[in-house]
Each structure stands twice: as C-alpha cells, then as structure tokens.
Amino acid sequence: MDSNTLALIRELNLAYLLLVQRLIQEEERATDTSHLGVTAEMAGVLAALSLGEINRLAAVPQLLCKFHFRAHTALSALADQQGRVGETGAPQESEPAEKYA
User: Mean pLDDT per 10-residue run, the chain (101 residues)?
Assistant: First the structure.
C-alpha cells in the first residue's frame, strides 16, 4: 500500500475509534453496545484507552470498522438514493433509507 492509502486508513480508523469511544462513554456502558459492533468487554477496553493508545491503534494498516447493513436492500437503497440527484444538485424525493435498515 502506498503512503497516501495508509494515511487515509489511519484517518478513518482514528475517526471511528474516537466516535465509538465517545458513544460508549455517553451510554456509560449501561446499555447494549452490540449496535456499535463491539462486545461489552471490547467496550470496556475502548472506553479506557488514552488518546495516545487510540492513535497507535489507529495506525494499524487495516480498517478497524466494517459496514453493518442487515440486508442487501439497505445498501442498495442508500446507493440508489445517492444516485437520484436532479439538475440543481439537490437529492430528489425518494423513500427513506431507514425503511430498509
């Protein structure tokens, strides 16, 4: 992988880790964290990571997040919705993607 690709992976990983940590801390781990794609044990570790540890973890050369679509139709609906742009650049009216999630 070239350095630009690695930098993009690191940036995405960092944003993902910071977001997940924030969501876990806001929920105070009192609720189910499976919607975040992490177990309760993982949530405990992620919540306790320092910024330096998060930076080191984000630098691994692989994506730490994954897509969590329950059905092919959800992804298709999102892709289709993005393709429906009128001449003004504004999205056209269509069914909400949440309907398929």
Answer: 94 95 76 74 91 97 81 76 52 46 43
